[in-house]
UniProtKB/TrEMBL annotation:
PANTHER family: MITOCHONDRIAL PEPTIDE METHIONINE SULFOXIDE REDUCTASE (PTHR42799). Belongs to the MsrA Met sulfoxide reductase family. This is Peptide methionine sulfoxide reductase MsrA. It holds the Pfam family PMSR. Gene3D superfamilies: Peptide methionine sulphoxide reductase MsrA (3.30.1060.10).
Length: 161
């Protein structure tokens, strides 16, 4: 099993989407690469903690490759927007690929460079090693399963297997 953390705007939709991908064994939402321990959602929303709303993804590389996982990630974000996706605006909504295995960095950069060919504007999605990740509060986990009409910038048809 491999792990990666993906930030793509509001974490509810990112989790709901990756839960539909064959080979993804586990997801959880949380706060990545900020500057304090155990942040709360309210603190993250102040734009002072440095955290991004993110989704931890554990996947079976025998079923889905990192390249394919990233192709799926690029489908659900606009990587040219800084600090926003859909109606969500703020630094916590920036797009970032946080790698856990340093061997993944080259694959991620190659994927970004390939994706850049589709855009006139530069991709602003950050690529960084994961420094820290704190699970979000329980009410955020699997939020769109619990609240099927909850807001999400990702089109609902993307959530079908």
């Amino acid at each position: 099993m491999k792990e990666i953390v993906l930030a793509g705007g509001c974490f509810w939709g990112v989790q709901a989407y990756f839960d539909t991908i064959d080979g993804v064994a586990e997801t959880k939402v949380g706060y990545a690469n900020g500057n304090k321990e155990n942040p709360t959602y309210e603190e993250v929303c102040t734009n002072t903690t440095g955290f991004a709303e993110a989704c931890y993804v554990r996947y079976d590389e025998n079923i889905i490759s990192l390249e394919d996982l990233l192709r799926n990630y690029w489908k659900i974000i606009n990587p040219t927007l800084k600090n926003r996706q859909g109606n969500d605006i703020g630094t916590q909504y920036r797009t970032v690929i946080y790698y856990i295995d340093s061997d993944d960095a080259d694959i991620i950069i190659k994927s970004r460079d390939e994706e850049q060919k589709k855009y006139d504007k530069p991709i602003v999605t950050e690529i960084e090693p994961l420094k820290n990740f704190y699970d979000a509060e329980e009410y955020h986990q699997k939020y769109l399963e619990k609240n099927p009409n909850g807001y999400c910038h990702i089109p609902r048809e993307f959530f079908k297997k």
